[in-house]
Design goal:
This protein is of the alpha/beta class. Helices cover about 40% and strands about 15% of the residues.
Length: about 400
């Protein structure tokens, strides 16, 4: 039998494997995670992303998806994606700035601008790329980012890439943010940034107070509304609409891969901002644009938000029911104000054990521990969707009660 060989190196694999493993330290890190009870194996979805789904061959009530409105399988999105593929092919073939801007991309950006009530929008390949690419493009090493300590990792990475000075204030502590701004030179360019909905705790950012600070200290005001778009505000417009902050937020970031049910991210703002990002945002300049099917599905999702508002109402009915059930059982759900409801247990290993036991009983709720959250704030994060039935949620509550008592969490 012929010996398998590496394309780049013609020596047999057996000979190559005798070399020192320069990545052996990674194995040691993984072993440490296993010792701490924090090692996680990827759960594999078999079939569609639905409220009840098959993961690792087990049928479970799915409380781990960002599919807030159940749009991943909506008939209108399916048909729009199929039609666009038939008409326009499976890919765009280029980056947006060369040959990859299609009519359907421009239509999606026009629709999103109308949805967010801004002059213009640019679409990115992901919400992460939208946040990181925008912060890095707008700021320089001479500028300052003033950021909530629990802001999303993509905001943190964008700030680092910009080389701007980073000032972090305690979560939602507006007085602390004010103190930071007071100590900065008046003429220094400043970006004040917060999540609209915080992805791990499910609470809302202090938008009205921070917008007032931004105006007082002449900051650029930026909000990451990824977990709010399709959830808060009229027709799911987001937290800017929810708080009545239109015209007071310079940069709005949203996602197309959560409530919208498809893939991607976007930035909404002035025409000047969007034209600048067309020329300077690196993810936009160096990544192939969305396939036509993705853009078409996102447009169809916006149609659903406008024409089927009862879906959002059902999401909130389910959210209130599930939150009340967890509270009645005695679980610590923190300060959540959204369909994201954490079950906070503190210890990381205990959170993972709770998650695993829930899964064995038919409920998929992912464990979250350090470094995603603080070491003493490990939790199982639950997300309710519009697609859950009342029976699904009652079953999940019964299992939470059973496992929570067995583990001494309640």
């Amino acid at each position: 039998m012929q010996t398998a060989r590496c394309v780049a190196d013609r020596r047999p694999y057996t000979e190559l494997s005798m070399h020192v493993d320069s990545l052996s330290f990674l194995g040691a890190e993984l072993d440490l995670l296993k010792e701490q009870g924090l090692y996680r194996r990827l759960r594999v979805l078999g079939g569609e992303q639905q409220a009840k789904a098959s993961f690792d061959g087990r049928q479970v009530v799915n409380l781990s998806s960002n599919n807030y409105l159940g749009l991943t399988t909506h008939p209108r999105l399916r048909e729009a994606a199929l039609d666009a593929t038939r008409r326009l092919g499976v890919g765009s073939g280029s980056v947006r700035s060369i040959a990859g801007t299609m009519d359907i991309h421009m239509e999606l950006e026009r629709r999103l601008a109308s949805f967010k009530k801004t002059e213009a929008v640019v679409v990115f390949q992901s919400g992460f790329a939208a946040n990181a690419g925008t912060v890095a493009a707008v700021l320089t090493r001479d500028d300052v980012v003033v950021s909530d300590e629990l802001n999303h990792a993509s905001i943190i990475d964008g700030a680092r890439l910009s080389r701007a000075t980073i000032k972090v204030f305690p979560h939602k502590d507006v007085n602390a943010a004010r103190k930071v701004l007071q100590d900065l030179p008046p003429n220094q360019r400043k970006l004040l940034i917060t999540d609209g909905v915080f992805s791990m705790d499910g609470d809302l950012g202090a938008l009205p107070e921070l917008c007032a600070l931004a105006e007082e200290f002449r900051c650029i005001m930026m909000v990451d509304d990824a977990h709010a778009s399709g959830v808060f505000g009229q027709h799911g417009c987001g937290t800017i609409d929810h708080f009545g902050m239109h015209g007071r937020v310079d940069i709005q970031v949203g996602t197309l891969s959560k409530a919208i049910g498809s893939l991607g991210g976007y930035v909404a703002g002035s025409r000047t901002l969007i034209d600048y990002l067309y020329h300077r945002a690196r993810p936009f300049l160096f990544s192939t644009s969305h396939p036509p099917a993705v853009a078409a599905a996102c447009i169809a999702a916006l149609d659903v938000l406008e024409q089927e508002p009862h879906i959002i109402d059902r999401l909130w009915d389910n959210t209130r029911f599930f939150k009340a059930g967890l509270a009645a059982l005695g679980f610590n759900t923190g300060l959540s104000q959204s369909p994201i409801t954490p079950v906070i247990v503190g210890d990381g290993a205990l959170a993972m054990m709770l998650s695993d036991r829930l899964f064995e009983e038919g409920v998929f709720a992912q464990g979250i521990a350090f470094p995603t959250v603080a070491r003493d704030k490990a939790r199982v994060r639950t997300i309710v969707t519009a697609a859950h039935t009342r029976e699904d949620l009652q079953f999940a509550l019964d299992i939470f009660a059973k496992v929570g008592r067995a583990l001494g969490v309640i």
